[in-house]
Design a protein that fits this description.
With about 190 residues, the protein is mainly α. It is built from nine helices and two strands. It starts with a helix and ends with a helix.
């Protein structure tokens, strides 16, 4: 599903690693991930789903990132660097995806950007807290291994959509690390 931040992570890694792929659009809003055919490949019924020959499937966006990046500069091999990347990727799934990703899903996709002010006040602080953890001005410009890794891809997937999640732009501008575009994003 091209509008999914989790699917975007996989596409961004594929593009940056110059790996050819065939995109099959699965619209979760129309129940396409709940068909018997799709559920046979991924019982959780979620996207993205990567088919790896022969007929094997990998689900969960961060598992897909590790699979794609294995043996490349995007996947740290040093134990500490790898743990640091995993730390940020777990943070992304635990703090960002449920707050920014869920808000993007409801505000931008399901409700089509309609006013959700009653929800904004209840959940906005959680989104900001997640962004504050990432956006500390004292932090390094990249999140793991002192270089660009799949952790940066994972974190970028939803933070670059935060402006569509009922967060005011001036609040995002307080976090300079989040305002810096990823160079490869501009090339896509």
């Amino acid at each position: 599903m091209q509008r999914s931040g989790n699917s975007y992570k996989a596409r961004l890694a594929l593009a940056q690693l110059d790996i050819p792929y065939r995109l099959v659009e699965v619209d979760i809003l129309r129940g396409e991930s709940r068909t018997p055919e799709f559920l046979a490949k991924n019982p959780s019924g979620q996207v993205p789903l990567l088919e790896v020959p022969p007929g094997r499937f990998i689900s969960e966006s961060n598992a897909i990132l590790w699979y794609l990046a294995g043996g490349t500069a995007l996947a740290p091999e040093d134990r500490i660097d790898r743990a640091e990347a995993l730390q940020w990727m777990f943070f992304e799934q635990h703090s960002l995806e449920p707050n920014i990703g869920a808000a993007y899903f409801w505000f931008a996709l399901v409700r089509g950007g309609r006013d959700c002010s009653s929800t904004r006040s209840k959940t906005g602080w959680r989104r900001l807290r997640s962004l504050r953890v990432m956006g500390s001005p004292q932090g390094p410009p990249l999140f793991a291994a002192d270089r660009y890794t799949i952790a940066d891809i994972a974190l970028y997937a939803y933070t670059h959509l935060a402006h569509q999640c009922e967060l005011r732009p001036h609040r995002l501008s307080r976090h300079p690390r989040l305002a810096q575009p990823v160079a490869a994003e501009l090339a896509m």
